[in-house]
Specification:
CATH architecture: Sandwich
Largest sheet: 4 strands, antiparallel
Number of helices: 1
CATH class: Mainly Beta
Distance between the termini: 43 Å
Order of helices and strands: HEEEEEEEE
Helix content: under 10%
Number of domains: 1
Strand content: over 45%
Amino acid sequence: MSSGAPDYSGKKVDVILRAEWEVVGGKDKVFTGAAGSKAFGEYIRVSYTVPVGKTLYINTATAVIVASAAADGDLEQHCYLEVTAPDTATFHLRAGGNGGVVIPLTQPIKVTAGGLLTIDLVSYANHNVGLALSVRGYEI
C-alpha cells in the first residue's frame, strides 16, 4: 500500500482558500448580534469601524429568526438582512429569508480603513420574534 503524496515523494502540500488561511493566522473577524421579542419592523444592528491601516473582507453572513412564543412557532418567520459599508454608494448585500438565511460570498465585501461596516437584521414577521446574526470575515 502506498503512502505519502500522490507522486510518492513523501511531501505533502495543502491548498487552502485565503479566508481559511487568515483564520490560521488569527486575522479572522466574527460579528454577532442577538435580541429577543422584536416586533414587525424592529431590528438589531451591529457596527464596526475598520482601523487605520487595515482592510476588512466579509465572506459569510448568516441570520436566524424564531418565534418568541410557542403558539407562533409554525407561522411565517420573515427576515431581511442588510450589510452596508461606505466603499460603494449602494448596499453590498440584501437578503431575505423565512426562518433565516446563510450566504457564503464568493466575492468578499471589502471595507477599507476608516470604513463603517453596518449589519442590520430586520423582522418582517407579524408576531414577536428572536433575531440573531453572525457575519464572518478577516482583516489584514
